[in-house]
Amino acid sequence: MEFIQHTIEWCRGEIFEGKLSILFGIVILLASLGYWKFGSTDAAKAMFVPLLMVALLSIAIGAYLIQANSKRITHYTEQFEQTPAEFILSEQERTAAFIKWYPYTQYILFGLGILAMLCLILSNKPLLRAIGIALLLLVLYMFTLDHFSEERAYKYRREITKQLES
Questions:
Q1: How many CA atoms lie less than 13 Å away from 81 in the CB half-sphere?
Q2: 150 vs 129: CA distance, rounded Å
């Protein structure tokens, strides 16, 4: 397989992840609207805005992943056709730059998860508890997104290394 195919495969994985993010956002949006329309308790009514924010954020992330990676496929293909060796070296630098952020992202998400649980444990106010629940949902979504992105990044990084060694 030519190296550019690995690059395109990586971008398509990001696009697929973007589509799943949009689907997740739509499901959460529907749940949010359900709480708004049918919620009869203070806790149910408080869920509307936090869930709406999670939904809009995941839809925005998904749309960005789809849009950005669709453009990248064309751009990367053109770059590879012009100067394959330089393209592979630039991909090595680019992946090294973002791979180092994965542990930091996980620490941040862990911290947000702790904050969310504190909102649930230490408060009896419906809005703070709703924020905690929505934040936990967001953290779970982001951990999932980050996990598959990290796996794809390391797989792509191995292909870059193979190309540079041959």
A1: 6
A2: 31
